[in-house]
Amino acid sequence: MYRWLSTVDCPSAMILRPFRPSDLETLWAIDQACFPPDISYSQNEIAGFIMYPGSRTWVAEEGGAIMGFLIAGRQSRGVGHIVTIDVVGPSRRRGVGSKLMEAAEQWAREQGMAFIHLETAVDNLPAQRFYAARGYRRSRRIEDYYRNGLAAWLMVKGLEK
């Protein structure tokens, strides 16, 4: 079945590694657990984002168990996009999300990107606080962003070289 971390211990032995095709089903299951049905992605959508040219996927793992993942992509004119960041419940507030974001932002800098952006639901205040603490600022509200009609905030961060 799916294997992800179920302990609440600090991920001292956590590693970040690239996506492997054998991860797909587990990453999809994590996305389904992290987001409501009208916000989570289908397995085909996740696969499409991962395989899209110019995208990168990082998987956070400890002891062979997946704790979370992040999918990012390169857009035209030196702009990066965080498609999704998912961390399993027991691994939240343990630095997993921060390590995933650091990896994506460093990759974006190395690719010469000047900005990176993401979308987050207007009612997801913990995510908004997390991103704001990392230097992301609300740029604009996107009405009807999600399938359920919920709006999203577009949040942007400038990347210093």
The CATH topology name reads: Aminopeptidase
CATH C-level category:
Alpha Beta
Cross-sheet strand order for the largest sheet: 1-2-3-4-5-7-6
Task: Please name the CATH architecture.
Answer: 3-Layer(aba) Sandwich
Tell me the fraction of residues in β-strands, as a range: 25-35%
Main sheet: strands, sense, barrel: 7 strands, mixed
Give the overall silhouette: globular
Low-confidence regions: 1-11
* Amino- and carboxy-terminal Cα gap: 42 Å
Class computed from helices, strands and strand pairing: alpha+beta
Radius of gyration: 15 Å
Task: Give the helix/strand layout.
Layout: E1 15-18, H1 24-34, H2 43-51, E2 55-62, E3 65-75, E4 79-87, H3 96-110, E5 115-121, H4 125-133, E6 137-142, E7 152-158
Parallel strand pairs: 4-5
Antiparallel strand pairs: 1-2, 2-3, 3-4, 5-7, 6-7
